[in-house]
Amino acid sequence: MTAARHSIDLDLNIARARLILAPAMLLSIYVDSAKPDLTPWFSLTGGLLEIDRYAFASLLLHFAYSAAVHLFASTRRIGDRFVCGTAAIDVLCAIVVAVFTEGPTSPAYAFFAFAIIAVGCRAGFRATLAVTACSMLAYFVLILLSANGATHYYLMRPFYLGITGYLIGYLGQQRVHFEARVRELETRDQRHSIARSLHDGYVQALAAVNLRIVACRQLLQRGNVEAAGGQLTDLQAGVAREYDGVRAYIRSLVDLDGTAAASPDNVETVFHVQADFRARGLRAEQILLILLEGVRNTIQHANAEAALIRTTETGAAVRIAIDDDGVGFPEGGEPPWSISSRVAELGGETRMVPKPDCGARLEIELPAG
Description:
elongated; single chain; alpha+beta; 10 helices; 64% helix
């Protein structure tokens, strides 16, 4: 699973948790016999199996907002700006719920905690501390407004919230460091394994090829053309075998099973390429390499007569569409690894779109940068 896919799944899980929060708090407030007293000018009511209309409306709005975020997260990848925006709204919702319920003793404490946890899971240590500080300040103001001379009873609650936020941010940062270290060790072990395989297998094969070439040259110098031709024929067959072996080894490194349909005929595909985007040096090179891989995959596997590759920049995204009239993707297959791996490195998404008639369509969306 790519890092982009992990990020999308995490955003969806956070959105699902936010959906559960409002109904859970609604039930908690409904069975709570305490009467809200933070805003006496509203004449709020409350008690056992009773909830004020303002509190109910605020929780209903929170649920609607949660549903909208979940819908958005299920259809596209969420960016860092969106995460910051949802964190600010989460803290604001906690304040509103506290105002219309019981102030410092309100279940809105869970809303503050959720805002901190959501940022701690998705963003870094500094962002978590920033949301924690805002939550502490808002909670402290609520205590000053609603304590009615009993401030000292609730004064430590914002600090408990701050301790919780700091621990969430710290442990989240340690988890990031731990996962980075694990990936580093795994990568190092994989490199050693690949190096041994290349040295013991393919390097020896290249050495043998070199010896055969030397033998062929000596035969040609002696005028023994027929023997040299036989050697070259054997050499060609050996190189083809080693090529297939190297290709199979490369595919095994990325867990590919080779199910992509091979082009039965060498059809000369006619390409129509449109590219209109802006990108800095290395990023522009990566995008052009994705287009080149699209051309190569279409030639090798699609058996298509015509193909269209279109690249456009719209807002904060660069979109690439690769269409052909060939054999299409195999049923249950995945996007070409040579393309999807590059797209994942750039933080984008790759989608295979079914076509009603024939051929294949690959859609790629990359964040602009």
